[in-house]
Amino acid sequence: MSSGFLALHLSILLAGFTGVLGRLITLNEGLLVWYRVMMASGFFLLYLFITHGKIRISVRDALRIAWVGLLLSLHWLCFYGAIKYSNVSIGVVCFASISFFTAILDPLMSKRSFSLREIAFSLLTIFGIWLIFHFDTKHQVGIVLGVLGALLGSVMTIENRRVGADYPLMTFLFYEILSSFVIMSVILPVYLHFFPVVSIVPSVSDTVYLLLLSSFCTVGMFSLQLEALKKLSTFTVNLSFNLEPVYSIVIAMVLFHEAKEINFSFYLGLSLIIVSVLLQTYFHWKNYQRLPRKA
Question: DSSP string of 69-130?
Answer without folding.
Answer: HHHHHHHHHHHHHHHHHS-HHHHHHHGGGHHHHHHHHHHHHHT----HHHHHHHHHHHHHHH
